[in-house]
């Protein structure tokens, strides 16, 4: 029995003639391949690609295979920024106080804003609102620890590592970050045994884990009013922010403190007779003092004590 092949219809330019042509398996296969190729050519949106990458990294275990990838991406970008800064210093003959512009942040994302100062204030403000500021603070602390590896003794580095551990990793840490038990145990073991302490690797896995959490927060930050305020105040291409712009960014952080203080006062005035309310107020007051110390230390590290408000709350 002969197989019947489907005919395709083609009209001539006059529209009066109809020609039947046989479609072979080869032509059908070719047509399907063309359709698939067209679908493959369509690139995904930048946001979809970034979201997919974050999901992939977040669901993966932070092991030796993924850790270098996450950390190296940021470290490579940091080297690029340092090199650019050195070129500017050579050109002007003195240290040049440059920052990362908003255009660069829009292009490079999280790794760029982490190397900034003024824009980073706005990201910290968002993280404080999101109750995840400890991730950024830990990352910045480890960055400073890494910078000291070349100039400090093993004893000094171990002391620094113990302070970071006590602040962000131990079970009693006030700013405890969310780490895998294996990563946490590895850091603990290195600090307990002097012979096992390795300043080059002790925080690598933890830093990679936190970087992924920051990526997730950064994507949400892009959709907020505070992000738009950052763009408006900083400008698109500015790399040297004046005192007014710095003050505006710092004031945002202390505005967050002011809101916390007002909330605590409202709670206190609203229910003085309730023991439960007093307990809640005590917890909130403790969090307020902790937030205050976070913001003050951040501002001092970024801009110096002179940029603290004269009357900070």
TrEMBL record:
Official protein name in the record: Regulator of G protein signaling superfamily
Biological source species: Rhizopus microsporus ATCC 52813
Gene3D superfamilies to which the protein is assigned, alphabetical: Regulator of G-protein Signalling 4, domain 2
UniProt-listed Pfam families: RGS
InterPro entries recorded: RGS, RGS_sf, RGS_subdomain_2
Domain RGS residue range list: 109-231
Lineage: Eukaryota, Fungi, Fungi incertae sedis, Mucoromycota, Mucoromycotina
């Amino acid at each position: 029995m002969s197989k019947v092949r489907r005919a395709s219809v083609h009209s001539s330019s006059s529209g009066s003639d109809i020609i039947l042509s046989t479609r072979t398996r080869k032509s059908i296969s070719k047509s399907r391949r063309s359709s698939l190729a067209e679908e493959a050519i369509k690139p995904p949106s930048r946001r979809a690609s970034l979201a997919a990458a974050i999901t992939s990294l977040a669901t993966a275990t932070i092991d030796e295979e993924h850790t270098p990838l996450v950390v190296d991406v940021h470290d490579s970008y940091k080297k690029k920024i340092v090199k650019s800064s050195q070129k500017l210093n050579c050109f002007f003959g003195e240290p040049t106080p440059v920052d990362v512009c908003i255009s660069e942040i829009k292009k490079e994302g999280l790794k760029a804003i982490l190397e900034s100062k003024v824009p980073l204030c706005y990201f910290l403000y968002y993280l404080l609102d999101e109750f995840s500021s400890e991730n950024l603070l830990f990352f910045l602390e480890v960055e400073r620890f890494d910078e000291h590896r070349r100039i400090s003794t093993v004893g000094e580095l171990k002391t620094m590592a113990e302070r970071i551990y006590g602040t962000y990793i131990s079970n009693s840490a006030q700013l405890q970050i969310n780490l895998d038990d294996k990563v946490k145990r590895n850091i603990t073991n290195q600090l307990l045994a002097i012979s096992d302490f390795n300043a080059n690797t002790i925080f690598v896995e933890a830093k990679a884990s936190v970087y992924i959490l920051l990526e997730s927060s950064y994507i949400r930050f892009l959709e907020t009013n505070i992000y738009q305020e950052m763009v408006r105040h900083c400008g698109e291409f500015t790399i040297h922010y004046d005192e007014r712009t710095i003050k505006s960014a710092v004031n945002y952080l202390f505005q967050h403190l002011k809101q916390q203080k007002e909330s605590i006062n409202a709670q206190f005035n609203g229910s003085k007779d309730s023991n439960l309310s007093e307990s809640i107020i005590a917890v909130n007051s403790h969090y307020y003092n902790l937030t205050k110390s976070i913001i003050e230390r951040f501002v001092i590290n970024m801009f110096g004590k002179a940029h603290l408000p004269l009357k900070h709350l």
